[in-house]
Amino acid sequence: MLAVLRNTTFRRLFAAQIVALLGTGLLTVALGLLAFDLAGKDAGAVLGTALTIKMAAYVGFAPVINAVAAKLSKKPVLVGADLVRSAMALCLPFITEAWQIYVVIFLLQSASATFTPAFQSLVPVVLAAERDYTRALSLSRLAYDLEALASPAIAALLLTVLSYNKLFLGTVAGFLLSAFLVLRTALPATAGHAAQEAPASLWHRTTLGTRIFLRTPKLRSLLALNLVVAAPTAMVLVNTVVYVREVLHRPETDLALALASFGVGSMSIALGAPRLLERFGDRAVMLAGAAVIPAALAAATAATFVAEPASEPRGDSNSAWPLLLGLWFLLGAGNSTVLTPSARLLREASDEATRPYVFTAQFSLSHACYILTYPLAGWLGAAAGLGPAALALTFVAMIGGTGAFLSWPRRPAGAHPDTRPDSRDATELKQ
C-alpha cells in the first residue's frame, strides 16, 4: 500500500490531505463542545442545523463551483479554497451565538465543496494504474480513519491544558499547511489541459456528472449506498456529544474517545481493503457494509431506548460506555466497506474528460443524503429523544441498503462491466 508514496506528486497531495484532515478533526471535537456550551442538552439540534447547512453548501454549490472552475488550473483553485477555509476557521473562537456558527460553517464548507472534488479527481490522473489507484484509495481511507483516531486523541490531550476554543487554531494551521503543500506540488500537465478544454456550456458542465450517474446501474446503486452511510455518520457526528455528556455523564475527553472508536472501526477495514477487493470484488464488499450498518444501528436504537438521559449519572453507565464504543466501532467498519471502494466505481464510469464531473456529482449527491439524516439526528433527537432519532436513522439505512441490493444485480460471467465511460459524455463536452 505504501508503495504509491514513491510517486512524488501523490506523496505531496497525500500529505496535504493528512494535515487538512487533522485540522478538520480538531474542528469536529471543538465544534461539538462549542455547541454544548451554547445550547446544553439541545447541542444536537445546533450541530444538526450546522451540519445540514454544510450539506446544503455541498449539494448546491459543488456542481456549480466545479463547472465555473473547470476553465481554471487546479492549483490556484485548491490553494484558494484552503485559504478561505483557514480564514473561516479563524472566526470560530470568537463565536458567541448559534447563528454565527451557521454563517461561518456555510462559508467554510462552500470552500470545501470547491477543494474536495478537485482534489479527488486529480488522484486517478496521478496514478493511472488500477492497482496503484486501489492502493491509493485504501491509503486515503486510512488517512480519514487515522484522523478520526488521532485528532480526537490529540484533542483529548490538548483539552487537559487548553480550552476547546484553542483547538480551532489547529484547524487554521492545518488548512494553511495544506495550501503550502499544494502550492509546492507539480501537478500533471493533463490537469491544466482539461481545464483549457472545458465546454462552453455551464449547464452541461453542471449536470453532466448527475446524468452519468443516472444512466449507470452501479452508480445508481452507489446512490443508495450513500444513503446507508449517511445514517450512521449523522448518528455519530451529531449525537455522540449528547450520548457522552447528557446520557452517560462522561467527561469531555470521552467525547474524543467515542469518536476515535468510530475511526478505529473504519481503519480496521481500510487496512485490508486491497485484499478484500481483489478476492471478493466491489459488489460483495460494499453490499456487506450495507447489511452491517442497519444491524448495528438497530442495536444502538435498542440500547438507546434503555439508556434515556437521567438527571443524575446512571448506575449502569459503566456497562453502557463499552457498549457505545463497540457499536461505534461496528458503524465505522460498515462505513469503510462502502466508502473505500466507491471511487473505483467512479473511475470506471468516467474518462479523463468527464472524471471531474463524475467525482463532483458523487460529492454532491452523497452529501445530499445528509440533508435528510442530519436533521433526523439533531432536530428529532432534541424534540423527541435519542431513541426515536436512532430508530428513524435505522429505517433510513434499511431503505438505502434494500435499494443498493436491488439496483446492483450480479453480473453474469463473461459480461462486460456496466460502468464503461459512455462516448456521449465526451461528445457533450465538445458542444
CATH class: Mainly Alpha
- CATH A-level architecture: Up-down Bundle
Order of helices and strands: HHHHHHHHHHHHHH
Using DSSP, what is the number of strands? 0
Strand content bin = under 5%
- Average pLDDT figure: 80
Q: What is the CATH topology descriptor?
A: Growth Hormone, Chain: A
- What is the makeup of the main sheet? none
Radius of gyration: 21 Å
Q: How far from one another are the termini?
A: 40 Å
Give a short summary of the structure:
This protein is mostly helical and 431 residues long.
Can you tell me about this structure?
The structure is a single chain. This protein has helices at 8-39, 43-69, 74-91, 98-126, 130-159, 167-183, 189-196, 202-214, 217-247, 253-306, 317-348, 355-384, 386-407, 423-429. The chain is mostly helical and 431 residues long. It has one domain (2-411, 419-429): Up-down Bundle (Growth Hormone, Chain: A), CATH 1.20.1250.20. The model is unreliable at 412-417 (pLDDT under 50). The chain crosses the membrane at residues 45-65, 167-187, 222-243, 255-273, 285-307, 327-346, 358-377, 389-408. Its main location: membrane.
Describe this protein with a few key phrases.
single chain; mainly alpha; Growth Hormone, Chain: A; 14 helices; globular
Please outline the helices and strands.
Blueprint: H1 8-39, H2 43-69, H3 74-91, H4 98-126, H5 130-159, H6 167-183, H7 189-196, H8 202-214, H9 217-247, H10 253-306, H11 317-348, H12 355-384, H13 386-407, H14 423-429
